[in-house]
Amino acid sequence: MTSTPGRRVTLADVARAAGVSTSTASVVFSGKVNVAEATRRRVLAAAASLGYAGPDPRAASLRLGRSGIVGVVISGELRHAFLDPVTTAMMDGLTDALASVSTGILLLRDDPRGDEMPPITEAPVDAVVLIGWSGRTPSALEIVRRRGLPVVMIEGDAGEGIPRVTLDNREASAAISRHVSRLGHVDVATVTLPLDADRRRGAVTAERVAAATVEVTLDRLAGFREVYPDAPGVTASASLVDEGMIAARALLTEADGGVRADRPTAIVAQSDLLAVGVIRAAEECGLRVPEDLTVVGFDGIAADGLGSLRLTTVVQPAVAKGRAAGEQITRMLAGGPGESVHFTCTFREGETAAAPPHRAG
Amino acid sequence: MTSTPGRRVTLADVARAAGVSTSTASVVFSGKVNVAEATRRRVLAAAASLGYAGPDPRAASLRLGRSGIVGVVISGELRHAFLDPVTTAMMDGLTDALASVSTGILLLRDDPRGDEMPPITEAPVDAVVLIGWSGRTPSALEIVRRRGLPVVMIEGDAGEGIPRVTLDNREASAAISRHVSRLGHVDVATVTLPLDADRRRGAVTAERVAAATVEVTLDRLAGFREVYPDAPGVTASASLVDEGMIAARALLTEADGGVRADRPTAIVAQSDLLAVGVIRAAEECGLRVPEDLTVVGFDGIAADGLGSLRLTTVVQPAVAKGRAAGEQITRMLAGGPGESVHFTCTFREGETAAAPPHRAG
DNA sequence: TTGTAAGCGTTATCAT
DNA sequence: ATGATAACGCTTACAA
């Protein structure tokens, strides 16, 4: 219980005070070798009286060659990412699967902070998980590759030999679109996730699609287009309820706020949060869901505040995705090979899809 | 561009290949000393051809005595914490203020994982930010103290000489309660945040309050009780819309679902998310807000999906709180003293509070 | 401008 | 069961 001396207390100090060698003191803390009970107690007593807090993790990490930290690079702003229940669920699975090899998750910035070296260059991480895709993903990957760090990519293509955790975005999207089609809908529109790092809102045009970089968005769009090749779409700037509302208003209303005559009878949203926004916007302008408008989503995550709304959607195993990523990292850290893991969504019938209303024609 | 040799490439290897000393090679990377342009290029070329990824952060951190990592301990489950816009906003301010001294934020687990040593013991962090309070906070603090790490506590009492970032929870809560009182409300109830680590729902009883540990909850409750000393309350298990709905149903409805005759005319919620849930529950049972029921919140954060709802609430400067914590950490890392910082909420009039309805009576 | 050398605090190997 | 010793890969006085 001594107070701060000039210098930091080290293992050597403790050993000296206890009258043992540093190696003996070391094993007392690591517990990896048998130590006589008496010695053990003497060392612990010395440590306590000197206020030694245990081996310095920085020194240990140099010696051991690992820091017990796994870096997570999330594309886009952290605040956006964490407000998305899908991301949160994934992080849950990830931290869980990583618990045995890691003391924690290091959130790495991915913002365009000028010319500085990206944080991954200087962060003492044992492995890296990349989530999503941004313009800086390739350079991040290159750094990680050179540092020889195990890396797993969730929802994104990292190229050659990088284990991925993927979802059948296209198939699932096609499946739910077919469901809408079978109900009889012809005039259908889609609300997509961001197309690129710009996250600019607006109509989904051929040019924008050609320049798009976010694979998830493109895959889900492709699945939708399998069923509705020429259907219009609006892209949102984030997976948020409010964004869904904005997009839906663009699809449903005239400039004066009235409902358009040529409005779609169904809207396929690329996320549940967007779908909830679409529903709110629909209700706002007097359309009932699903009687007047069918709305389907994607993700199947129970977001807070949705109340009793049972959305027709496809459910993705978000926690399992995170867990799979963590498991692959764990394997690679143990020297094994990393494998890609593919997940499948399951359709879930809710109460927001029905046959289209009869129209005067 | 050489492929994996048996051993990791070190600075010494690069120096040897470039025909310079390791110290010279070192400064080429750190850029802290002038190096002849020719030498510089030679070293860089050697590094590139050997596939050297730059100085190993683990070794650097031992030598420098800092890792560039700041640990964040959030009480409770991460997934809960991150779904709260207040936390997210705080994290934003924190990462922002920390950008100059830190490559990232290390999310430390705080779960009751049996007997193991808590992660802070083994994590190579330069400083720690504690958010909220849990039963393990004291032991976390003790470890941090022994390791001599700078620490700042947000919303919680760390005791002696630990800089805190605080909010005028009690005063703000009293202020908004007075607002409700001035409108003429007499039968008022409150919905509180969790009282303790258990997060058990239920009525706010004297016993539960006496055993409560969450300071924020107690402070806001105290402020409310300044104005309504004997008003009933219900405690929620988290700051979520759905929890607000559950709590409100307990306050407003009979067992059979009908509205209670003795229902309150106003509900003071301890967070905006809870308030939104209260409003949803009220609408569910046919009560109009604010005509039939006044609902006020706390936080003033623009959460997604609230649409155009203008809640009457008190606004807390969440981003500024995070930033302040980051700034104190930065100062302490620079050797300066850390200071406590106190923030004040501001009342914001919305559209969810009005005079109580006239009653038969 | 570049090189020499001394650690940073730990852990693992190998004797004893 | 314990101890001497050699790394781990880097940075920075200080010397040349």
UniProtKB/TrEMBL annotation, chains A, B:
Is-annotated flag, keyword Secreted?
Answer: no
User: What keywords would UniProt list here?
Assistant: DNA-binding, Transcription, Transcription regulation
Looking up Gene3D superfamilies in the UniProt record yields: 3.40.50.2300, lambda repressor-like DNA-binding domains
Where is each HTH lacI-type domain found? 9-64
Per the UniProt record, one Pfam family is Peripla_BP_3
Does this entry carry the keyword Heme? Answer: no
Q: What is this protein called?
A: Substrate-binding domain-containing protein
* Organism, scientific name: Microbacterium soli
